[in-house]
Design a protein that fits this description.
The structure holds two protein chains of two kinds. Chain A is mainly alpha-helical. Chain A has 13 helices and no strands. In chain A, helix 7 crosses helix 8 and helix 8 runs antiparallel to helix 10 (about 220-255). By secondary structure, chain B is of the alpha/beta class. Classes of the chains: A mainly alpha, B alpha/beta. Chain A: Belongs to the binding-protein-dependent transport system permease family.
């Protein structure tokens, strides 16, 4: 177990480093542009003199050799300094920290909702005896995965808020305002989850150990929930770890559609005005979220599948 | 109801439509406890099952009538596709997807199982009728502790509460012959060997004290000595508890050893049924006779082997000297010594059989001998040349002279290739071209292995197991090799197919003079084809010698143990020495250096 954990942690650190390095390469090493944008204060590109450019280069340390720049910034990032926003002059870490809680609330509730919805649809689809219900349930995921997020959001606002007046359409006050955005964000994720989980459940039902369980006299419900579900949850869990990245990406659209504050909105604006230090900070944030989610998945894995940590020790 | 009816043995035949007995049975209802005297515990009458697939309806069971009395062991014997497993699944009401019972009755202790609802059927499954499944490696839930899986059978039928069930599970594991049952109960299936897993499955099946056990090929996935232990144990347990067993098996030897009565199935019908001695001693149906002829374990002396080594003066084709293979142990544990100093040689035109149980190192030894695996130490020679460190183009040239026939013809042929492409591939790798030439050669090889030329355009998926193995043999022969490694080439095949493939291998050896390194765990098969045998155990050759000497006067305890474990040995008299038996310890041109 200890060895398993160490390996996973090392991998996590490696992924973070790679994310930082690639984003550094993409954002800072592109010639010219970055400095000109910064010199113009992040807005429209105006006429800038060479002296101004040099001043900006000096200010941001861009006149140093590449390797030195990279190491300086990496060192700073390790101590929690991701630079300052070109547009507002605010520290990037402070900016993100300020916006993060709202987005965390949104993505966490969307993630939980996606798990719930996805598992429920898959389990109900695998369990029901009525062919029409099974067909309906198992075609839902394809529908959910193909509907664009912004469209679902607008549709929900139109129906639930405007026509029925049940929940607020915009803003971020109280849990009522969280329901629609979380649901919008959860739908595509839950659809993929349901698809993978339903497929794994179907496969698990074909396994010989299910025949053994049935021969013991187990009911279909017992087989689904006590035998098949746990085995089938493994691929679904792996997919969920990957989908956490999608939740963060989806928050860009959802926060915009529902006029919420949060990291997603910051991403939208800073990309529009090309506020490079902020964008890189957000890339790192995305990588951290992704790594943490997958680390969590890896930690849950041994509890679901004993073969992960006790493999190989076959006794005779 | 025509063929099976005529084949029925008096007393075992069950005439469908004996209305008064059925009616009486129903009136009594189901009674727990011993079965009513004179009434069979299980009675199948005119059972018909078909599979409805996209390609149409396939009749798997076409009117089977069979009785099993309380406490009786009845073997249902047949080859794959005969409908024997489907019959067993139908009794449990667990037909695979697409399987439909078209007609017939399944009466268990007076209850017609085809007329009760799903809930009632579930209450009988596990409680009254239990299953010992075929493949222990996949029949236990991998993520649950084995003790729990035994206890579950008790919990489902409310025979115990949680704590008591856990306790009884340990006792059941112990009774099923699992050593250290308390420790094992806390382990997961992957931490147990195949034999132990099958014992766990027996504990599961016997947990609720069923009156009928359906054992579907319970040991065919196990080594022969383990198979015997497990079957012995199963027999003791069922005999002491008076449990009836419907033993479904492809192995006539297993049936002969274990069953009081045998029913032979073919093409969905029972072609012959009767007491074991009668069916085996005086078979009436031609199919039974064919099956008996083909069964290697009951007919040890009928050898099909080739003429033997050619040019005795020539150096051996392949020779290994003190071969050792070590695999790194997990987490700094000492290295695992898979092969611990084996020396052997194969001559042209000769078959050397490498015999042993799984994990004995026989496959690793063969792989080292043909340079598919590098030896940790020791030397390998081919045709007098030291090939231990051969590499690059010279190693590739050697590849052409050594070919392999794998165990599983279902997995070893690329399903996307046509047969012509499969056979032509080694030729292409050896630079034989153009395509037209390769095709001509493939057609010629097909004819050689007894397949029609039309097979050339078909894909492996359209062929039977035996046909596929013929294709695999044709592929191995394509580059005209001098040595062919046959790694369990017939163990995935039915007995009649097995016999045909063995004969084919022998004919080819006589025609082409190839040497075979024949890896097998099945001593009966080995006796039929090998000239010499090397018995391996834990990475070492414990005994080596001429095949008849090994079989008639084995020198090592382990060899004797292996021989005793061959199914059918209970019914078989002392194996008669074959007409071509050589005296033991004979000094011949194929005498071998043993480690």
């Amino acid at each position: 177990m200890g060895r398993y954990l160490t390996r996973r942690l090392l991998q996590a650190v490696l992924v973070l480093w790679a994310a930082y390095t690639v984003s550094f390469a993409v954002l800072y090493l592109l010639p010219g542009d970055a400095v000109e944008i910064m010199a113009a204060g992040g807005g429209e590109i105006t006429e800038v003199t060479d002296e101004q450019l040099d001043a900006v280069r000096a200010e941001y340390g861009l006149d140093a050799p590449l390797a030195e720049q990279y190491l300086d910034r990496l060192g700073a990032a390790l101590t929690g300094d991701l630079g300052t926003s070109v547009q507002t002059g605010e520290r990037v870490t402070a900016l993100i920290a300020e916006q993060l809680p709202a987005t965390l609330r949104l993505t966490a509730s969307a993630g939980a909702l996606a798990l719930l919805l996805g598992s429920a649809v898959a389990l109900a689809g695998a369990h029901t005896r009525r062919p029409w219900l099974r067909q309906t349930l198992l075609s839902l995921p394809a529908l959910g995965a193909s509907a664009p997020t912004f469209w679902v959001g607008l549709l929900l606002i139109q129906l639930v808020s405007f026509r029925w007046g049940l929940l607020p359409a915009i803003g971020d006050q109280g849990w009522q305002s969280l329901v629609l955005p979380a649901l919008t964000l959860a739908l595509p994720t839950s659809a993929v989850l349901a698809q993978v989980f339903a497929k794994s459940l179907r496969d698990a039902w074909e396994e010989p150990y299910v025949a053994t369980a049935l021969a013991k006299g187990a009911s279909p419900a017992r087989v689904t929930f006590r035998h098949a579900a746990r085995n089938a949850s493994l691929p679904a869990l792996t997919v969920f770890g990957v989908l956490v990245g999608n939740l963060l990406a989806g928050s860009v659209v959802v926060e915009t559609v529902f006029s919420r504050t949060g990291v997603g909105r910051v991403t939208a604006t800073s990309v529009t005005v090309q506020d490079i230090p902020v964008v890189q900070g957000l890339v790192v944030l995305g990588a951290v979220a992704f790594v943490l989610a997958n680390l969590a998945v890896d930690l849950v894995y041994p509890f679901l599948d004993p073969r992960v940590t006790t493999g190989g020790a076959v006794a005779r | 109801m025509n063929e099976p009816g005529t084949a029925h043995e008096p007393g075992t035949a069950h005439e469908p439509g004996t209305a008064e007995t059925e009616g009486a049975a129903r009136a009594e209802g189901r009674r727990p406890g011993p079965a009513v005297p004179g009434r069979p515990l299980l009675s199948l009458s005119d059972l018909r099952v078909s599979y409805r697939t996209r390609r149409g309806v396939e009749e798997a069971v076409r009117g089977v009538s069979l009785d099993v009395a309380a406490g009786e062991v009845v073997a249902l014997v047949g080859e794959s596709g005969s409908g024997k497993s489907t019959t067993g699944q139908a009794v449990l009401g667990l037909l695979p997807a697409g399987g439909v019972r078209e007609a017939g009755r399944i009466v268990f202790d007076g209850t017609d199982l085809t007329r009760v609802d799903a809930r009632r059927l579930r209450s009988l499954r596990g409680r009254e009728i239990a299953l010992v499944p075929q493949d222990p490696t996949v029949s236990l839930n991998p993520v649950r502790r084995v003790g729990h899986q035994v206890a579950e059978a008790l919990l489902i039928h409310r025979l115990a509460d949680r704590a008591e069930a856990a306790e009884r599970a340990v006792a059941l594991l112990e009774r099923a012959g699992v050593p250290e049952p308390a420790v094992r109960a806390r382990q997961f299936p992957h931490q147990l060997s195949g034999g132990l897993r099958q014992r766990v499955l027996i504990a599961v099946a016997l947990a609720a004290g069923p009156r009928l056990l359906i054992a579907d090929e319970p040991t065919s996935a196990l080594d022969v000595t383990v198979q015997r232990q497990v079957l012995d144990h199963l027999e003791t347990l069922t005999r002491s508890s008076g449990t009836a067993v419907l033993l479904i098996t492809h192995d006539l030897g297993v049936a002969a050893d274990r069953a009081r009565r045998i029913a032979v199935m073919s093409g969905g019908v029972i072609v012959e049924a009767g007491p074991t001695e009668r069916v085996l001693g005086a078979p009436r149906h031609p199919y039974t006779r064919a099956l008996l002829r083909a069964a290697p374990s009951l007919d040890g002396a009928r050898a099909v082997r080739g003429a033997g080594p050619r040019e005795p003066g020539r150096p051996p084709l392949a020779r290994g000297e003190e071969l050792v293979k070590e695999f790194p142990g997990p987490r700094g544990a000492p290295a695992h010594r898979a092969v611990a100093g084996v020396s052997l040689q194969v001559r042209a035109g000769e078959t050397l059989a490498l015999v042993g149980e799984s994990g004995s190192g026989k496959s690793t030894t063969a792989r080292m001998l043909v340079r598919l695996t590098d030896a940790t130490s020791g030397r390998v020679f081919f045709d007098g040349e030291d090939i231990t460190r051969l590499g690059g183009a010279r190693l590739r040239r050697l590849r052409r002279r050594v070919q392999i026939v794998q165990q599983n013809p279902y997995a070893s042929l690329n399903p996307r290739f046509s047969v012509a492409e499969v056979i032509g591939e080694p030729l292409r790798a050896c630079g034989v071209g153009p395509r037209r030439v390769r095709w001509a050669r493939a057609a010629e090889l097909l004819e050689r292995v007894g397949l029609p030329a039309g097979t050339l355009h078909r894909r492996p998926g359209e062929l039977s197991g035996g046909q596929r193995q013929r294709v695999a043999i044709a592929r191995a022969l394509a580059p005209e090799p001098e040595l062919v490694v046959c790694d369990e080439p017939v163990s995935a095949l039915d007995v009649t197919t097995q016999a045909q493939i063995l004969e084919l291998l022998t004919t080819l050896q006589d025609e082409l003079g190839v040497g075979y390194l024949f890896i097998s765990h099945d001593l009966a098969v080995v006796r039929r084809i090998a000239h010499r045998v090397a018995v391996m155990r834990r990475g070492e050759v414990v005994e080596e010698g001429d095949v008849e000497r090994i079989f008639t006067s084995p020198g090592h305890d382990y060899t004797r143990e292996l021989l005793d474990a061959i199914p059918g040995s209970r019914t078989r008299a002392v194996p008669p020495a074959g007409p071509d038996a050589a005296p033991g310890g004979r000094d011949g041109p194929w005498e071998v250096t043993t480690a």
